[in-house]
Write a structure and sequence with these properties.
2 copies of one chain form a homodimer. In chain A, 69% of the residues lie in helices and 0% in strands. With 204 residues, chain A is mainly alpha-helical.
Chain lengths: 204, 204
């Protein structure tokens, strides 16, 4: 999911710059990232980067906005499908995206960016928006399941909050302790399904 | 829970230094913390700090070890009690500890320390040990519940992993997005209880 934005060929200068930022971030991490290093990954002149951004933080906040736009597409709501199936697919997409084992450099860098939000309101706003997007998408799935009578009448927002919180915790643990994320995510899915399904622990 | 270590009067030089580190960390955060600033909170000479530690990171890793010792006591296993009650109490202790609304400065600083673990093996080892302690305590409660026939035969380690992962995610979200932790933690408790309890969603 995270990575999808950077799979294809970039189109236009902004996308080229965002791909360059992604590569530089994966390679150097946040602390050692400089505009110069991003410039080295960028086919065009580094002065073009300075023309648009005052410093690396302004560029990185814009980069987070670019990621969010990608999430909005990748995590688009597909109405009509069985909500139990949609929930399973949404969790599978998280596992193959930000929690993909091949993308640890990026997960580490994203975590370092997230911690900038402790003191920097611009980062804070971006991560609050990203979390909100995922909460809304998960809450939409839960709400559809309740409407269709396949999920119990739980609080959709609280359920979505649990899902997003656990995913964020799994990313954090993975990059700070080497903890594999699968056991926690499998337990999350089992516990949430048990809580949601009107027929208890039975499969859909 | 986190805070209990710093509630009473410190006993001996090491505890005094740990309390001084706690106060300096809450006030300045990780990035602006210096041995001098810790020294200003410390009744004894700052040269005593330099005598024992090569720099702030060595002191902070020792500080994390001190916290872990405190968790080991505060989170001691109380055998004999009803596992359903023990699970509820353990989660309540987390809410009044690292997730206590009055302790946000410390939660922020701890999160900044945790992100040092992305690149620093000494921090990584400490946070891995802390997570492991909490996982073992939660798994012990789940195992007792299964043995006594009040919990379903789930994987105790995976359940504990879910609990610790969600708690870590809640701390992260709180200090990086202002997200209140209660909805996610209430959903966690409800989902885990629904998954564990042999009588489904009924209360103990």
């Amino acid at each position: 999911m995270v990575a999808t934005a950077f799979h294809g060929e970039p189109e236009g200068t902004r996308e080229e710059l965002m791909h360059a930022t992604y590569r530089a971030l994966c390679e150097h991490g946040y602390a050692d990232l400089t505009i110069e290093r991003i410039g080295r990954e960028f086919d065009k002149s580094v002065s073009l980067v300075y023309h648009h951004y005052d410093g690396k933080d302004e560029l990185l906040v814009d980069f987070l906005g670019f990621l969010l736009e990608d999430f909005e597409t990748a995590f688009a709501v597909e109405d009509g499908e069985d909500p139990r199936e949609r929930l399973r697919e949404a969790l599978a997409r998280v596992r193959s995206g930000p929690l993909d084992a091949d993308d640890e450099g990026f997960a580490s860098a994203l975590t370092e960016l997230r911690v900038q939000a402790v003191h920097d309101p611009a980062y804070r706003e971006q991560f609050a928006r990203t979390d909100r997007l995922f909460r809304e998408r998960f809450a939409g799935i839960v709400r559809a399941g309740i409407d269709q009578g396949v999920f119990r009448d739980v609080d959709p927002e609280a359920t979505a909050d649990l899902l997003v919180t656990t995913i964020n915790g799994a990313i954090l643990q993975r990059v700070t302790t080497d903890r594999p994320v699968e056991p926690a995510l499998e337990a999350l899915e089992a516990a949430v399904r048990s809580w949601l399904l009107v027929d208890g622990v039975a499969e859909s």
